[in-house]
TrEMBL record:
<protein>
    <submittedName>
        <fullName>DNA-binding transcriptional regulator, LysR family</fullName>
    </submittedName>
</protein>
<dbReference type="InterPro" id="IPR000847">
    <property type="entry name" value="LysR_HTH_N"/>
</dbReference>
<dbReference type="InterPro" id="IPR005119">
    <property type="entry name" value="LysR_subst-bd"/>
</dbReference>
<dbReference type="Pfam" id="PF03466">
    <property type="entry name" value="LysR_substrate"/>
</dbReference>
<dbReference type="InterPro" id="IPR036390">
    <property type="entry name" value="WH_DNA-bd_sf"/>
</dbReference>
<feature type="compositionally biased region" description="Low complexity">
    <location>
        <begin position="319"/>
        <end position="328"/>
    </location>
</feature>
<dbReference type="GO" id="GO:0003700">
    <property type="term" value="F:DNA-binding transcription factor activity"/>
</dbReference>
<dbReference type="Pfam" id="PF00126">
    <property type="entry name" value="HTH_1"/>
</dbReference>
<feature type="region of interest" description="Disordered">
    <location>
        <begin position="304"/>
        <end position="328"/>
    </location>
</feature>
<keyword id="KW-0804">Transcription</keyword>
<keyword id="KW-0805">Transcription regulation</keyword>
<keyword id="KW-0238">DNA-binding</keyword>
<comment type="similarity">
    <text>Belongs to the LysR transcriptional regulatory family.</text>
</comment>
<feature type="domain" description="HTH lysR-type">
    <location>
        <begin position="10"/>
        <end position="67"/>
    </location>
</feature>
<dbReference type="InterPro" id="IPR036388">
    <property type="entry name" value="WH-like_DNA-bd_sf"/>
</dbReference>
<dbReference type="GO" id="GO:0032993">
    <property type="term" value="C:protein-DNA complex"/>
</dbReference>
<dbReference type="GO" id="GO:0003677">
    <property type="term" value="F:DNA binding"/>
</dbReference>
Length: 328
């Protein structure tokens, strides 16, 4: 029997979903990576199996495994999708040279390690792609992607506030521990971890805007109101104020170059890292770049020895996963 994608009625997105599930051998992790609900992933796999007429994945109490037919399709799908991307990329560049350029916005938190690592990967894998980088405070970053002033936005999601992301397509690229930054001689600097309630009596250096609102709401969930002594718009300034002895602060990573500070993980506090693009303005090179961004954050988390990264987060703490196109 001869099959074709047109006759079978499935599109490339279903094949891409199958490839992610086949690689991860986890419907939950696939849903997190694709930033869709787990039932949606399951429905797409079942639809593909019905159309093909054979089982691709076996699910049991011990986990998910590929059937022999599924393993064969995974190898073929990976080759086919890779060949298609490699073929389309130069054609798109030739026909639409303006799309050879992509604008990426990010919060300053990622400026020291993750963004330079990402650019090294882009230079290695897509040397003809021109990337324009722009750093923002979170509120301005959201405004920029909503107004299509940038093509992609990288940020960590607030874990208490609900944001209106109805105009955006969110793609989860990883997760990270939330840390409290304190002076090296602070009473908690030698701890392996702390709870947020242990920090209730501290003087706080806070963020501004939506991240600040999220932090206050998070503290309220833990039964206290933070004593905010000073606020700053970006992580570099916040850490500088901690260094000056004005208080402690929370950050979503452990940036290098702050040897006089200690970064102590806050227990059960995990943040989703996402890439956002505008639903009405998808960029042809967004998907390959999202893969590189995902690899960048996985490498950064592994190099810091954190417990959290892609495949963790929701289900391993209070971090929540939003449905695609929903509100956060």
């Amino acid at each position: 029997m001869t099959f074709s994608a047109t006759r079978l009625g499935f599109d490339l997105r279903i094949l891409e979903t199958f490839v992610v599930v086949g690689r991860e051998l986890s419907y939950r992790r696939a849903a997190e990576i694709l930033y869709v609900s787990q039932p949606a992933v399951s429905q797409q796999i079942k639809k593909l199996e019905r159309q093909l007429g054979f089982t691709l994945l076996d699910r049991s109490s011990s986990g998910v495994r590929l059937t022999p037919e599924g393993a064969a399709l995974l190898r073929a799908a990976e080759r086919a999708l890779g060949d298609l991307r490699d073929t389309l990329r130069p054609i798109q560049m030739a026909l639409r040279p303006s799309e050879h350029r992509i604008r990426i916005g990010y919060i300053t938190t990622w400026a020291r390690t993750e963004i330079p690592s990402l650019m090294a990967m882009v230079e290695r894998d897509s040397p003809d792609l021109k990337v324009v980088l722009e750093s923002y405070v979170f509120d301005d970053l959201l405004q920029a992607i909503r107004n299509q002033a940038i093509d992609l936005a990288i940020f960590h999601l607030p874990d208490v506030l609900d944001l209106d992301t109805s105009a955006l397509h969110l793609m989860r690229v990883g997760s990270t521990q939330r840390f409290v930054a304190v002076l090296a001689g602070h009473r908690l600097s030698g701890r392996e971890s702390v709870t947020l309630t242990e920090l209730a009596d501290e003087a706080w250096v806070a963020a501004t805007g939506l991240y600040a609102e999220n932090f206050v709401a998070l503290c309220a969930k833990h039964g206290f109101t933070p004593n905010v002594v000073v606020s700053a718009a970006n992580a570099e300034t916040m850490l500088g104020l901690v260094r000056a002895g004005l208080g402690v602060t929370v950050v979503p990573n452990q940036p290098p170059g702050w040897d006089d500070l200690a970064f102590v993980p806050i227990e059960d506090e995990v943040l989703d890292i996402v890439v956002a693009e505008h639903r009405d303005a998808p960029h042809p090179f967004a998907r390959p770049l999202v893969g590189l961004i995902r690899s960048t954050f996985a490498t950064a988390v592994a190099s810091r020895g954190e417990r959290y990264g892609p495949g963790h987060g929701p289900g391993h703490g209070p971090g929540r996963t939003a449905p695609a196109g929903g509100t956060r």
